Input
Amino acid sequence: MAAAGKRMLTPLKRVKGLGSARSGTRHFWIQRVTAIALVPLTLWLVWVILGLVGQDAFVARARLAEPVTGMLLVAYIAALFWHTQLGLQVVIEDYVHTRWMEVALQILVKFAAVAGAVLATLAVIRIALGN
Amino acid sequence: MRERPLSPHLQVYRWPLSMALSILHRASGVALSVGAIVLVWWLMAVAAGGDQYQRFVDCVGSPLGKLALFGWTLAMMFHLMSGIRHLLWDMGWGFERERSQATGWIVVIGTVVLTALVWLLARGGL
Output
């Protein structure tokens, strides 16, 4: 029975391991890996933001200009936007059934995620370099 | 005889906790995606400094801004707690009915506690 089941796939299909959806488990895995990264990073960011409540622009800038803070912010931005666009992709796949609208929304989400990540990273670099 | 739906229907279905949490996980994720825009705005405002930072502070400090921030705090703490529950499931832990019910309530209570804690700290100026 097991042998017969295996013969349903060609050896190449089995090696590629992409399954019926043809995309494998890559989406699932990255969603989880970024989620794991976001647990400590989110708690850290909330802590940083709480420390800035009521502070002026100079204090905010000086705090975020610290090297470790800058690095963690960039890591947070990367994990956040990667995780976000993977999640939104699934939501669109599930609820938008008009093909052209689905494709347009998927592209819009990818572009917006990259734009958000690029703008935020550039801001962190400007803060770190002081210009 | 009262007219009844022929199959389980959302309006007459008593939602199991996990079903409500699952829907909320998705909804909070979408809400947080919108919140990510504010994060970008915040960093850009800090980078620009001066008037632009002040404009950001005025906006998020307004009653409407605070309400939105509170909503995002709630969504973030929920998504965080619920996400950890999902990660435990992914490792094969916690599928038993009692255990998933218990972790579901931990998510609900944890969300309320963490959100309250964040806002108490924020109001106290830390």
Summary: The mean pLDDT of chain A is 92. Chain A touches chain B through 33 residues (CB under 8 Å).
